[in-house]
Amino acid sequence: MIEVFKTNVNDDEHAKMLIDQILFDFSQYKANFDLDDCDRILRIESVTGYVESQYFIDLLNSFGYNAERLPDDPSFDLSKTNTIFHAIQEI
User: How would you classify residue 76: left for phi > 0, otherwise alpha for psi between -120 and 50, otherwise beta?
Assistant: First the structure.
């Protein structure tokens, strides 16, 4: 399962720190930021199933950032973008 969040993270160093924390807490997850996107997207993929969305919202809030889960877009074909999740983006 993949969840996508709109954030206000705008610093590569903080994005990397948040990714490190996510991977420490959820080693079975894959995560990356797209800070070039206007919504400063955080993508989380769980290879085992359900993504605990509220955890990520709370985690970013604890570091002074906002996160909002973006609704599913049924017109979005994930199979065409699956390669972005094959590796964790190093920032």
Answer: beta
Per residue in 63-90, pLDDT tens? 999 999 998 754 444 444 433 333 344 4
Counting every residue, how long is the chain? 91
What DSSP assignment string belongs to 9-44? ---HHHHHHHHHHHHHH-TTEEEEEETTSTT-EEEE
Which tokens go with 41?
């997207």
Q: Domain coordinates of the chain in residue numbers?
A: 2-72
Report which residue type is found at 79.
S
What pTM does this model have? 0.76
Return d(Cα 19, Cα 7) in angstroms, integer.
13
Beta bridge partner(s), residue 69:
5
CATH number given to 2-72: 3.30.70.100
